[in-house]
Amino acid sequence: MSxxxxxxxxxxxxxxxxxxxxxxxAPDGRCLSCKRKRKLDAHxxxxxxxxxxxxxxxxxxxxxxxxxIHVLVKWMKRFNPGEHPHRYWGDVCHILRKxxxxxxxxxxxxxxxxxx
Length: 116
What we know:
- It is a single chain.
- By secondary structure, the protein is mostly helical.
- It is built from 5 helices and 2 strands; from the N terminus they run ααββααα.
- Strands 1-2 form a two-stranded antiparallel ribbon.
- The model is unreliable at 106-116 (pLDDT under 50).
């Protein structure tokens, strides 16, 4: 049993935070990556302790883009073990741009969120 998946993501606190992120950052209901109007998830750009997640730590993405970004980051980590994710954010953005999925998150914003 995973506390994060089985408890936290089913909590009222998470549902309220997710709704706030979507309302503030995607009021038109569009994914920040592909711009399609779909049901949105809140993607953690940075995982703070679960009891201290901030709206700025999350971005609204559709399930397809959310899954893709996780796969891409996992793949990049595999080929860059021990590296901080911001070290290869340029590569991630390049791939996302080629696929038309660039989220607009800057390297510096990504680095700030992944270096804490």
